[in-house]
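Q: Please design a sequence for this.
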């Protein structure tokens, strides 16, 4: 009789009970990922059904990386952080995915924590396997110092410095202006609250310098910053991305989970 993997009953503990580690059983279950074309051609498609792919992929990543550093290359960008949570749920005909990372280095940008929720996720197994999400929301916490370090690489006319208070000191060396400001973002609109201004070292009355609202330039993938609000020395943000498409090689993902190396999504 032909048997197949039952994602509802499998667990690392059950695997240990039959004398195998979770890695041994997981590697055996995902053998079909090495050559999905041959698997489909042979008609043994159970291991490549979307529900099974999502369940086995989630269990493999959790068993290998939960509480440890995970390295993911997404569309050529490097994402590294400690995995705290990963969940995949079916929502009608589609899926919903949730991931939480801490101590994140996103292509050189340091983020304290980030939580991503992808809704309307469609899984199309094949070579490559395609993941389409109708919407992605990223919520996270980043230090003011990290935001300032990033802004100082953007070719601004102002030199920025994060103060101990969490406010930002902005210096314009040409106009000899020094300002201390607070900032927030709502719906891609930066709102500057100017706390003090000095010109050639002399204070400028605050009523002379009104608050400023600056629209943000378009972000990649039509992303938008729903909000970014300072909390002491950190900024809590929410970013909305209308749609995301990714492709992955199941064989590469399988090998990366077994070896504990980088996962690649392009």
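A: Design:
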């Amino acid at each position: 009789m032909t048997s197949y993997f039952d994602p509802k009953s499998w667990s690392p503990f059950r695997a240990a009970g039959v004398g195998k580690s979770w890695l041994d059983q997981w590697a055996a279950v995902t053998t079909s990922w090495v050559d999905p074309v041959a698997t489909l051609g042979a008609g043994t498609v159970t291991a490549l059904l979307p529900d099974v792919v999502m369940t086995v992929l989630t269990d493999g990543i959790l068993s290998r990386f939960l509480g440890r550093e995970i390295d993911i290359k997404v569309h050529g960008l490097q994402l590294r952080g400690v995995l705290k949570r990963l969940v995949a749920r079916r929502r009608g005909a589609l899926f919903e995915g949730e991931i939480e990372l801490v101590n994140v280095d996103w292509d050189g940008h340091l983020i304290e924590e980030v939580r991503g929720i992808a809704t309307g996720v469609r899984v199309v197994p094949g070579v490559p396997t395609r993941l389409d999400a109708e919407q992605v929301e990223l919520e996270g916490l980043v230090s003011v110092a990290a935001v300032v370090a990033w802004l100082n690489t953007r070719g601004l006319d102002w030199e920025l410095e994060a103060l101990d208070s969490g406010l930002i000191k902005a210096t314009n060396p040409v106009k000899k202006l020094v300002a201390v400001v607070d900032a927030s973002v709502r719906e891609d609109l930066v709102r500057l609250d100017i706390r003090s201004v000095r010109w050639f070292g002399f204070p400028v009355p605050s009523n002379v310098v009104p608050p400023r609202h600056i629209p943000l330039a378009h972000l990649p993938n039509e992303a938008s910053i729903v909000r970014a609000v300072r909390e002491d020395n950190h900024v809590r943000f929410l970013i909305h991305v209308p749609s995301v498409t990714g492709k992955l090689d199941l064989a590469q993902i399988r090998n990366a989970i077994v070896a504990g190396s980088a996962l690649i999504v392009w």
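Q: Thanks. Anything notable?
A: The first strand starts at residue 69 and ends at 74. Residues 145-241 form one domain.
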